[in-house]
Amino acid sequence: MESLSMWEATANKRKEREQLQGEEQCDVVIIGGGYSGLSSAYHLQKKNVNTIILEKWRVGSGASGRNGGEVLTGYIGSMEAWEKKKGLEAAKKMWQLSLDSIDLIQNIIKEHSIDCAFKRNGDFFAAYKPAHMDALKRDQEYMARVMNYHDIKVVEKKDLHSEMNTDFYHGGRIDAGSAHFHPLNYAIGLAEAAEGLGAKIYEQSEALKVERDARNKVIVTTPNGRVIADQLVIVTNGYAGDINQTIKRSVIPIESIMIATEPLPEELVEDIIKKDRAIHDTKRLLYYFRRTADNRLAFGGSGRASSKRDQRNLFDHLHAGMLNVFPQLKDTRIEYRWGGKVGFTKDMIPYIGQLEDGTHYAFGYCGHGAAMSSLFGKMIADNITNEEVEDNPLIVNQLKPIPFHSQHAKAVGILKFYKKLQDAIS
Ligand SMILES: Cc1cc2nc3c(=O)[nH]c(=O)nc-3n(C[C@H](O)[C@H](O)[C@H](O)COP(=O)(O)OP(=O)(O)OC[C@H]3O[C@@H](n4cnc5c(N)ncnc54)[C@H](O)[C@@H]3O)c2cc1C
């Protein structure tokens, strides 16, 4: 699953960063070099807070460089469902945060001229079953009436071909607020922007141990060095290891896989996806797909395998799914296959907060982190500099770790989780 992604193969030129050697000091040490960590460093440096990022592999080697690049509004499930769970004010705030997250990315990209093919063309949420159209229509009405959001438009089955050349779906809805980008190039650009403001990033520098001394300074040990800091941020999301058990057991890593075709003739790619939107669907184990800047189709779905052979089957299965949606691609070559870990939480909503010892964390974007994680990085920076976002309904300061001790319990938990996910969507 960790094989070369199409994004890595088509990424902008980037520098190799050094491994941490010896001892360094800073204000805030950040463990994890994905969007959450990079954005935390970027926003802290803007406030003249000195940061060091420790990344186990390379910047964007986790989900941030491997995802579908679909920068989507909202969360899993409808805002109406979130209103029922959290109340109207919280739901309104959550919705605004999701819009803010995309504006933030757009502004960072503009300010730093990040070359990552960012396009705010909207997303298309495709109905897998006729009955799913009812939910999408209800959602459009609710969003206009309650959230005063008018950028959602329903597309009936008879008009589906104005969006995509397929009969696989039963219509869908457009949300003009969403976007897409080259996910790894955004991570690379964000890393350079943070470094430009003074952040230090060490790659191949896994945090192995975290301790606090008598003065409550944080000491993070890596294979060849250590960092001493006033504050600690852990943003390892689906790749959380053993450095903090509470965080590790509060995030549910779910494997997602992607394939990418060879570059397609322009007429073909413009015919299969007409308006260059980020597409995802209401299927139980969803598909998400889109065009890329070099005219490929990038197609993703969920994947979890217990053996290498299963992994091959999963990719074959995903390819068959792609051909169900677009049979006209039957002679098209698949050039890349890869996967990564998406961080979920048991509440299916991202968490941001602090552990009892003061450690800051953010994780569990539940497949919406391409948008949300940059904002969460900013909110971590605001929390550290005491500019806490008022009444933020996503702050969770008391994590309740899930007892995922055995592989069996984990597998059962994930299956139950998928069921819950389906219920939330449909
Ligand atoms: C295949 C796939 C498709 C996806 N598609 C989409 C999509 O289209 N839209 C969307 O919104 N979201 C999508 N996601 C999810 C999205 O990518 C994530 O929500 C987002 O990237 C989270 O960023 P992050 O920085 O929190 O975590 P990550 O990017 O996973 O970063 C965590 C980092 O921590 C590092 N790390 C872990 N342990 C240590 C340690 N001990 N020391 C140092 N470093 C460590 C890891 O190496 C990793 O780089 C997808 C994810 C995957 C895998």
Q: What secondary-structure arrangement, pairings included, does this model have?
A:
Layout: H1 6-9, E1 22-31, H2 35-46, E2 51-54, E3 70-71, H3 79-86, H4 88-111, E4 123-126, H5 130-145, E5 152-156, E6 171-175, E7 179-180, H6 183-196, E8 200-202, E9 209-212, E10 218-222, E11 225-234, H7 245-248, E12 252-261, H8 266-272, E13 278-281, E14 287-291, E15 297-302, H9 308-325, E16 334-344, E17 351-354, E18 360-363, H10 369-384, H11 407-425
Parallel strand pairs: 1-2, 1-11, 2-8, 4-13, 11-18
Antiparallel strand pairs: 3-7, 4-6, 5-6, 9-10, 10-11, 12-15, 12-16, 13-14, 14-15, 17-18
Helix pairs in contact: 2-6, 2-10, 3-4, 4-10
The structure holds flavin-adenine dinucleotide.
Query: What is the N-to-C order of secondary-structure elements (H for helix, E for strand)?
Result: HEHEEHHEHEEEHEEEEHEHEEEHEEEHH
Number of strands: 18
Radius of gyration, CA atoms, in whole angstroms? 21 Å
* Secondary structure: helix percent: 25-40%
The CATH class label is Alpha Beta
Characteristic terms for this protein:
426 residues, alpha/beta, FAD/NAD(P)-binding domain, eight-stranded mixed sheet, 18 strands, binds flavin-adenine dinucleotide, Oxidoreductase, FAD/NAD-bd_sf, FAD-dep_OxRdtase
Structural account:
The protein contains eleven helices and 18 strands. It is an alpha/beta fold. The chain has a single domain, classed as FAD/NAD(P)-binding domain (3-Layer(bba) Sandwich), CATH 3.50.50. A hairpin with a 2-residue loop joins β10 and β11. The structure holds flavin-adenine dinucleotide. Flavin-adenine dinucleotide is lined by residues 31-37, 54-57, 61-64, 66-70, 72, 206-207, 235-239, 241, 243, 256, 258, 288, 300, 339-342, 363, 365, 367-371, 373. Residues 31-37, 54-57, 61-64, 66-70, 72, 206-207, 235-239, 241, 243, 256, 258, 288, 300, 339-342, 363, 365, 367-371, 373 line the site of flavin-adenine dinucleotide (FAD).
